[in-house]
From TrEMBL:
Gene Ontology terms for molecular function: metal ion binding; peptidase activity
Any one biological process term the GO annotation gives: proteolysis
Organism: Apilactobacillus kunkeei
Protein name per Swiss-Prot or TrEMBL: M16C subfamily protease
Domain Peptidase M16 N-terminal, chain residue ranges per copy: 29-169
Domain Peptidase M16 C-terminal stretches: 175-342
Record-linked InterPro entries: Metalloenz_LuxS/M16 (IPR011249), MPP/UQCRC_Complex (IPR050361), Pept_M16_N (IPR011765), Peptidase_M16_C (IPR007863)
Alphabetical list of Gene3D superfamilies matching this protein: Metalloenzyme, LuxS/M16 peptidase-like
Keywords of this entry: Hydrolase, Protease
Length: 418
């Protein structure tokens, strides 16, 4: 058992790897009533290739849906029986199953492990699910915010698995078979490709014993190396325009990052702080664009840095789309000039970011989700606070020059149909 101690925060993170390769991370939080657990699989919507065979887009999300639906019961009903709420989600690069409870942690933890590690698929259930997910896809296709985001991602990563919505398309999901689900499950849902994270008023040794006992009763296939999908560099689509039922035009800029820095936490923190320094509420640039009517409260941005990709999306509603694009593009391309004299503002942004991290430390959900995201020596929310403290303005300029390249910026517009 490995213990990472953070004395400044009076916190400990306990880590143990089971004999079958399953990673287990426990963060005890004395005095908390609730316990939150996630079982995450390093398998997301981009992972559509297994040993040279390409599976239909959306299969990871489809598989997540079907895991709860057993031969003669629904796993959610079992969690409800033991007083827990349960859920699951699929992202580009991960699938997570979770529960939250104030009672019966052992029973709920057992159910979490059992229902994820004991798949059941039938032709009839698969066919029924296609209609359900098809409706979900149709709903997202009509949601302007979702279309704006995913079309922007598609512009950055055409001809890659990121080119398709996480749920797939109506055409792709209708190609999914029971055997496809078993193939994908058997390849990706191996214990050594999964991580269990438990945060709450628990005793780490108890959790490790419960998990060890549970896993020892099961037989697993011989471990195989899991080869994740690599997002190959591709030419970007510089600009697209769409027409939808919207009241006001929407616009997004996407910035495709250099793949050399995928999964680099210092790079991730630096770019995140850089975007905040440039464009967060309270910055000079934000206030000027707001007062000029170029942006409003709908404006926002996000930076995503994973092992397979990294990108940013900046979006909002505006009647002044061309000015939005020109002004923000200028800020991004000439960012160093804008921040070179912003040392005081940078220190303030750092303090705000540290404050947000400290607030997250009071949320067992935030801690668990942060821990389940980390494959890099289990660097986590507590490590990130120290890394943020050590960042200098020069770090933002150095990493910004690696990220904010004019030839990696894409544009996506949505106009009202009329």
């Amino acid at each position: 058992m490995q213990i990472k101690e953070y004395r400044k925060f009076n916190e400990k993170v306990y880590i143990e790897k089971m004999d079958n390769g399953l990673s287990v991370v426990v963060v005890p939080k004395k005095g908390y009533q609730k316990t939150y657990a996630t079982l995450s699989v390093r398998y997301g919507s981009i992972d559509t290739n297994i040993n040279g065979k390409t599976y239909p887009a959306g299969i990871a999300h489809f598989l997540e849906h079907k895991m709860f639906d057993k031969k003669d019961y629904d796993a959610m009903d079992v969690f409800s029986k033991y007083g827990a709420g349960s859920n699951a989600f699929t992202s580009f690069n991960k699938t997570s199953y979770l529960f939250s409870t104030t009672d019966n942690v052992h029973e709920n933890l057992t159910e979490l492990l059992d229902f994820v590690q004991e798949p059941y698929f039938s032709d009839a259930k698969v066919e029924k699910e296609k209609g359900i997910i098809g409706q979900e896809i149709s709903m997202y296709d009509d949601e302007p915010g979702a279309v704006l985001f995913f079309k922007t991602v598609q512009n950055m990563f055409p001809d890659t698995p990121l080119n398709v919505d996480i749920a797939g398309t109506e055409d792709s999901i209708y190609k999914i078979t029971k055997q496809d689900l078993y193939d994908s499950y058997n390849y990706f849902y191996q214990p050594q490709n999964m991580q269990l994270t438990v945060v709450g008023n628990v005793v780490p040794e108890d959790i490790f014993k419960w998990v060890s006992d549970n896993q020892s009763k099961k037989s697993f296939n011989e471990p195989k190396d899991v080869k994740r999908t690599t997002i190959q560099s591709s030419e970007i689509v510089r600009e697209t325009t769409h027409y939808m039922d919207v009241n006001r035009p929407k616009v997004a800029l996407g910035i495709k990052g250099d793949s050399k820095y995928n999964g680099d936490i210092k790079y991730e923190l630096s770019i995140s702080l850089l975007l905040q320094l440039l464009l967060s509420e309270g910055s000079e640039i934000y206030e000027k664009m707001y007062n000029d009517g170029i942006i409003d409260d709908s404006f926002g941005f996000d930076f995503d840095c994973e092992d397979q990709f990294n990108f940013a999306v900046l979006a909002g509603e505006t009647e002044k789309i061309d000015e939005f694009i020109d002004r923000i593009s200028d800020v991004l391309v000439n960012f160093a000039d804008y921040i070179s004299d912003k040392s005081d503002e940078f220190e303030l942004i750092k303090k705000e970011e540290i404050g947000q991290h400290v607030s997250m430390m009071n949320s067992i959900e935030a801690i668990a989700n942060n821990m389940s995201d980390e494959d890099h020596d289990f660097e986590n929310i507590y490590d990130e606070i120290e890394m943020i403290k050590q960042l200098e303005l020069d770090d933002l300029i150095r990493y910004g020059k690696l990220f904010l390249k004019p030839d990696m910026i894409v544009k996506n517009k949505i106009f009202p149909k009329n």
